[in-house]
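Appendix B. Raw example, untouched.
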Amino acid sequence: MKTKPDEKVKTYGAKGFRERFLGEENPMHLLFKSNSDHFFCLKMQEIMQLKYPVPPSKHSCHTLLFITSGTHVMKVGYEEYETVSNEIIMVPAGQIFSIKDVNIKHTGYVCQFHPDILIGKYASREILNDFDFLKISGNPKITLTNDEANAVTSILNRLEQEYTGNDIANLNIVQAYLIALFYEMNKNSVKTPKSTSAAAVITGKFKELIHDNIKTHHQVHYYASELNVTPNHLNKSVKATTGKSAAQWIDETILLEAKYLLFQTTLSVSEIAVQVGHEDHSYFSRFFKKQEGITPVQYRKLIDKS
């Protein structure tokens, strides 16, 4: 039988926060360690009491948090979301997230799974189009009625049993329950309606594009060309939909990716500059300080002192 969660997941020791996060003491590493299928589902209180803020991070798995009591606060991309009882927050694979306030009490479930699990043996990739909350540009928050929350709780209980009751989870069962779970969530998820304005559609596609290309393309005209619109039209559309220009979105995405790399990797500042498309690391440092108020080196030192 699989080791019990409270035996596997321990609080951090005396090492620096980044060192602990990148090492084998990371709670997520421990949860996946004996499970090569990249899946787990547990009650939040069974994992650990989070004692440290989480700077910008991302994971190769989708992450679902269902709150059953209390309040949970996290940033998904640049948007902060407060989630309360009967609400779900979904962090798509590859999306950067952070947790600032660790003193808020809450209970619920956390479920992580690799995107390939949802496709599995019986589904095609087209099924992913049914779930906007799995997209970088989608709305990650879902509010449930009491009846829907009961249905979601039942499914998550079954997924938890599959994870804790077997040495290796049966991914066919996991896939079936995840699909059922997502169609339950779809009843109240904020979808992109067919009547959505052209500006909102362009903005959604733009967000997806910058997420995929931020390491290589920083110019508004590149994204406008990819979307078959003029740079001026792209800027007007993004500004009308989000209140920020396309250039602001690009700069903020570069900064967020850099902060993630400063926290979640051991790359040097020069290497990180290259990773976010700046060959000149001095220019990158000036850009980072202008945006954040401190240099990349100072930012990393602040995390190390956490």
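End of appendix B.
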